[in-house]
Amino acid sequence: MEATQNDTPGQADTVIEFTIASHYRFVEMVGSVADQLTQLAGFEAENIDWVGLAVRESVVNAIKHGNQLDASKPVEVRFHLTDEKLLVVVRDRGNGFDASHVADPRAPENLLNPNGRGIFYMRTFMDDVEFLSHRQGGLEVRMTKRRPPRNGGC
Amino acid sequence: MSLTISHRTVGDVTVLDLSGKITIGEGSVQLRESVKSLLENGSKNILLNLGDVSYVDSSGIGELVHSYTTVKNQQGQLKLLNLTKKIQDLLMITKLLTVFDTFDNEADAVASFT
What we know:
The complex is a heterodimer of chains A (154) and B (114).
Chain A: E1 14-21, H1 27-40, H2 45-66, E2 74-81, E3 85-91, H3 118-125, E4 128-133, E5 139-146
Antiparallel strand pairs in A: 1-2, 2-3, 3-5, 4-5
Chain B: E1 3-10, E2 13-22, H1 26-40, E3 45-56, H2 58-73, E4 77-81, H3 85-93, E5 102-103, H4 106-112
Parallel strand pairs in B: 2-3, 3-4, 4-5
Antiparallel strand pairs in B: 1-2
């Protein structure tokens, strides 16, 4: 699938975007942004943790599997907070992969596999996760979490 | 340092008290090296105390699984103590609570080793 969505922000939206080099030391920085944004957006404490975990997993995947730990390749991250939802987009410069072929880590034959749980956690903790081929190359992961009913916040 | 690990012995059991984060890179590597070192020194009854572990990612969960299978393959036992709610949730949704023996009381955990 190719990335075609229109992410044009509305006037009241909050958009945070930045680019990191492919090194694990930047994962926590991205995760901290997710933590603070979900906190400001009024997410429940448990969902703040889980969204943060999904974002960190996505960035790790981009660094490790997408960019193959090549520090010269960037990972682009974009947080887009609207009245209704938080959209997180993470793009690497890798060759992409077929997300439909990701094995279920809960299957008996996979239970003792030390790998293969990151995408499962992302899909579990976010409302929607898409894996798209970016038209300029690389894989784009788009994760959405609906906001709780608003009573303040940003 | 993202993870600190201290060792103590209770009877025939080596307890590893973990504090910090078990994540891709340093934390997971430290846990792997600690378990490997214990096995090399003949300690095969290992209890991981996770009570002070603030964060675990999928790599950290994978390292717990790797440690479990490594110890088991050497006829040892590796069990978990004091799971935080978050770790328990991460293990539960991936059905790993069916794999690990878990305890919230150290004396009970130590007594369970055969």
